[in-house]
Amino acid sequence: MSTAVETKAQSHREELAKLEMEVEALRQQLRHTQRLATLGTMTAMVAHEFNNILTPMINYAQLARSNPALVDKAIMRAADDGLRATEICGAILGLTDGSRAAPTEVNLDQLVRRTVAAMGRDPRKDGIEMPIDIPANLVIRIRRIELQQVVLNLIMNARSAVIDKAPPRLVRVWARRKRKRLVLRVSDNGGGIAAKHLSKIFEPFFTTKQGGNGSTDGRGLGLAICRQIVAALGGRIEVESTPGQGAAFTVSVPA
Ligand SMILES: Nc1ncnc2c1ncn2[C@@H]1O[C@H](COP(=O)(O)OP(=O)(O)OP(=O)(O)O)[C@@H](O)[C@H]1O
Ligand SMILES: [Mg+2]
User: Fold this and answer.
1) Is the Cα torsion angle 149, 155, 158, 159 positive or negative in sign?
2) Domain containing 101 — which CATH number?
3) Does the beta carbon of 194 sit less than 6 angstroms from any atom of ligand 1?
4) CA–CA dist 124, 189 (Å, integer)
5) What pLDDT was estimated at residue 179?
6) Closest of 140, 150, 220 to residue 177, by C-alpha
7) Which of 28, 65, 169, 212 lies at a 20 to 30 A Cα distance from 243?
8) Domain-embedded: residue 244
C-alpha cells in the first residue's frame, strides 16, 4: 500500500518538475518576445525621428538644385541635421541601455527657437502664429537632445492640429522654472482630443491620422517617444483638452 502511495507521489513530483520546466521555457520565450517587441518599437522610434530630420534636409537640397544661391545654406543644413541625426540615434538607443549623454546647460528659449527652425518651414507660411513665451535667461541643466525631441514632437502635433482649420491658427510654447522643475507647455487651438482617446494617445502606434502612401508621419509614435524620454528625465507629461477648442501638453522635469 505504502509503495503504491510512494509511486503516486513520485509520479506527481515528476509531473510537477515537467510543468516547471515548461513554465520556465515559456518565460524565456516571453522575455525573448518582449525584447523583440522593444527592439521593434525602438527601431520605429529612431526611423520616426530620422524622418523628422531628413524631410526638411531633402527639401533644402532640392531647392538648392534649382537655385544655386542656396547651395551653401543647404550644405550647412545637411551638416547640422546630419549631426543631429547621429545625436538622436544615440539618445534614443541610450534610453534603453543607459549610455546617455551627460546633461549640459541649455538656454530654453534658444532651444525652442532652434527646434522650430529645424522643422524647415516657417509656421507663418501656413498662417500659424507661434508665440514663444520663455524668459530669455531661463537656463537649465538637462540632456539637450532628449528635451529637443520632446519639444519637436509636441510642436509637430500642435501644428498638425491647427493646419487645416480656419484661422486663427495658434500654437503657444510657454515655459517657466518652478520649484526646481522646468514646466513647459505646448498648447494649440485645434480640434482637441476626444475623451475616449485621452488614455490611449501615449501608447506606441496609437494614431487618429491617416498615414499610408509610405508616409512616416502619423505612425502614432511621437507621444510614445515623448513619454519615454520624459520618464527617463525623471519627469512627467500631462494632457488637457477641450474637444473643439484645442489641446495642451505640459511637461514637468527636474531642472
Ligand atoms: N495637439 C493635438 N491636438 C489634437 N490631437 C492630438 C494632439 N497631439 C496628439 N494628438 C492625438 O494623439 C495621437 C497620437 O499622437 P502621436 O504624436 O503619438 O502620433 P501621431 O502624431 O498620430 O503620429 P506620429 O507622431 O508618429 O507622426 C494623434 O494621432 C492625435 O489623435
Ligand atoms: Mg505626432
Assistant:
1) negative
2) 3.30.565.10
3) no
4) 15
5) 94
6) 140
7) 212
8) yes
Cis omega (within 30 of 0) for bond into 56: no
Among the bound ligands, name the one nearest to the CA of residue 199.
1
Q: For residue 81, what are the domain limits?
A: 35-254
The model's pLDDT over 174-225, given as tens digits with 9 standing for 90+, comes to: 999 999 999 999 999 999 999 999 999 999 889 999 865 555 578 899 999 9
- 38 close to ligand 1 (CB < 6 Angstrom): no
Considering its fold, how many domains does the chain have in total?
1
Q: Of 162, 197, 201, which is best to mutate to test ligand 1, by the most ligand atoms within 8 angstroms of its C-beta?
A: 201
Q: Which residue has the CA at smallest separation from atom 7 of ligand 1?
A: 157
pTM above threshold 0.90: no
Which amino acid belongs to residue 126? D
Is residue 120 assigned to a domain? yes
Does residue 17 sit within a domain? no
- Whose cell is 515528476? That residue is 14
Across the range 75-104, mean pLDDT stands at 83
